[in-house]
C-alpha cells in the first residue's frame, strides 16, 4: 500500500512539474524561437520582431496580483488620447518573445501598448502557470491599473496562445468600462481540452493521465484546473471578440477557434483563420489579411485607428 502511494505521489509530482511548475529565478530567453520546419520560413522575421520590441524605449511598470505576486510589464505610451492594447504572452515564454508582431500593428494604427509578462514568466513573480485560471484575474488587475492612470484611454485586451485563452477567460469578469474589446490569437477551448491533447501527443492515455494532472494542480498549485475556460467565458461575455487562428496550428487545433466562436454570445464577434498558419504566428503568414481584419474589428467597435 505504501509503495502504491509513493508511485501515485511520484506521478502527481511529475504531472505538476511538467505542466505547471516554473523553477524560481528562471528567465526565458526571448530569442529562443521555434525553428522546426513549420517555423523556419519565418525565423528571421520573428527575430526582427523580438529585436524591434526589445530595443523600443519603455516605462517599466508593476502591480500586485490578488495573491501577492509582483507582476511586471513594459508600457509604451505615444499618445495619451489614443487607445491602448494590453498584450499577454503565452505558455512558458514572455512578452518580448510573443508580442512583437501585435506591437508593430498597434504602432501602425497609432495605439499605445502595455506588454505584460504573465505570472511565472519573464520578469514577473510566481512559479505556477495555471492555464488562465489565476491569470484571468491578473488581466483584470492590469486593466484596472491602466484605467486608473489613463482613464481617458479605450482598452483592448490582446493575447496569443495561453495569453489568448487568458483574455477570453477574463472577458466574463468585472472589467473597467474602458475595456471595449478582446483579440485572441490561437486560444484553446479549455485547459482540460488542451492538456488532454498534449497527453495524447505524448502517446499516453488522456483518460488515465488527466485526473492525475488535475489533482496535481489542486494539491501543489492550489488551483482548480476546471474553474473556468475560454469556451465557458465567451458564453457569458458582453465584450466584442475577435478570434484568430492558424489553420495549420499543430499545438492548439484550429477547430478550437471554431468552437469558441460558435459558443461566443457577444453582440459583436469575428473569426479569422489563416491558411497554412502555424501556432501563434499567423500574422507573419498573411500580414495584410491579419492587420486588415484587426482594423475592421477596431472600426466596428469604435476604436480609432490612424489613417495610413
UniProtKB/TrEMBL annotation:
Gene Ontology MF terms in the entry: hydrolase activity
Keyword Hydrolase listed: yes
UniProt keyword list: Hydrolase
Coiled coil residues, start to end: none
Source organism, top-level taxon: Bacteria
Domain AB hydrolase-1 span(s) in chain numbering: 108-209
PANTHER family documented for this protein: ALPHA/BETA-HYDROLASE, ALPHA_BETA HYDROLASE FOLD-1 DOMAIN-CONTAINING PROTEIN
Name the record gives this protein: Alpha/beta hydrolase
Name of the gene encoding the protein in the UniProt record: ybcH
Amino acid at each position: 500500500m505504501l509503495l502504491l502511494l509513493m508511485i501515485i505521489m511520484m506521478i502527481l509530482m511529475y504531472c505538476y512539474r511538467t505542466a505547471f511548475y516554473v523553477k524560481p529565478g528562471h528567465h526565458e530567453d526571448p530569442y529562443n524561437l521555434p525553428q522546426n520546419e513549420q517555423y523556419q520560413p519565418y525565423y528571421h522575421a520573428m527575430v526582427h520582431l523580438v529585436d524591434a520590441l526589445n530595443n523600443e524605449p519603455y516605462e517599466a511598470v508593476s502591480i500586485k496580483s490578488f495573491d501577492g505576486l509582483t507582476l511586471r510589464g513594459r508600457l509604451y505610451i505615444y499618445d495619451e488620447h489614443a487607445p491602448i492594447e494590453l498584450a499577454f504572452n503565452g505558455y512558458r515564454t514572455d512578452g518580448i518573445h510573443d508580442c512583437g508582431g501585435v506591437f508593430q500593428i498597434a504602432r501602425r494604427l497609432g495605439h499605445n501598448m502595455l506588454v505584460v509578462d504573465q505570472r511565472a514568466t519573464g520578469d514577473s513573480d510566481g512559479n505556477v502557470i495555471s492555464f488562465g485560471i489565476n491569470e484571468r484575474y491578473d488581466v483584470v488587475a492590469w486593466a484596472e491599473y491602466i484605467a486608473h492612470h489613463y482613464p481617458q484611454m479605450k482598452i483592448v485586451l490582446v493575447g496569443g496562445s495561453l495569453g489568448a485563452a487568458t483574455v477570453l477567460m477574463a472577458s466574463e469578469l468585472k472589467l473597467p468600462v474602458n475595456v471595449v474589446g478582446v483579440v485572441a490569437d490561437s486560444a484553446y477551448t479549455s485547459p482540460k481540452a488542451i492538456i488532454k491533447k498534449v497527453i495524447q501527443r505524448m502517446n499516453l492515455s488522456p483518460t488515465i493521465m488527466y485526473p492525475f494532472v488535475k489533482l496535481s494542480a489542486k494539491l501543489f498549485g492550489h488551483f482548480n484546473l476546471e474553474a473556468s475556460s475560454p469556451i465557458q467565458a465567451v458564453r457569458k461575455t458582453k465584450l466584442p471578440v475577435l478570434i484568430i487562428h492558424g489553420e495549420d496550428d499543430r499545438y492548439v487545433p484550429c477547430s478550437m477557434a471554431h468552437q469558441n466562436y460558435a459558443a461566443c454570445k457577444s453582440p459583436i464577434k469575428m473569426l479569422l483563420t489563416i491558411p497554412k498558419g502555424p501556432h501563434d504566428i499567423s500574422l507573419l503568414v498573411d500580414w495584410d489579411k491579419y492587420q486588415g481584419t484587426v482594423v475592421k474589428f477596431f472600426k466596428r467597435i469604435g476604436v480609432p485607428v490612424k489613417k495610413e
